Amino acid sequence: MDTNTLAVGGLEPLMSIDQLAEYLGIPVATIYDWRVDGKGPCAIRIGRHVKYAVHDVQEWVAQHREAAPGRPSAGEARAR
């Protein structure tokens, strides 16, 4: 998925649960489990559909990036 393009009208593109699972390389069931457990990127509910803003997904992934050896991760650095 090209995360640099804008959707119709210049709005940020939204990903479906299937697209998010494919992007992350994990089962769709894991995304649903994360929602129940309060984990994973912030979602947007539109009627009965659940979508994810590309920016929120990118931010969530960046927060889970492991640190280089000897350096704090992004989450640990913010906690200090």
UniProtKB/TrEMBL annotation:
Pfam families linked to this entry: HTH_17
Q: Can you give the residue ranges of the Helix-turn-helix domain?
A: 14-65
Any GO molecular function: DNA binding
Q: Report the transmembrane regions from the record.
A: none
Q: What is this protein called?
A: Phage transcriptional regulator, AlpA
Q: Which organism is it from?
A: Xylanimonas cellulosilytica (strain DSM 15894 / JCM 12276 / CECT 5975 / KCTC 9989 / LMG 20990 / NBRC 107835 / XIL07)
Q: What's the source species' lineage?
A: Bacteria, Bacillati, Actinomycetota, Actinomycetes, Micrococcales
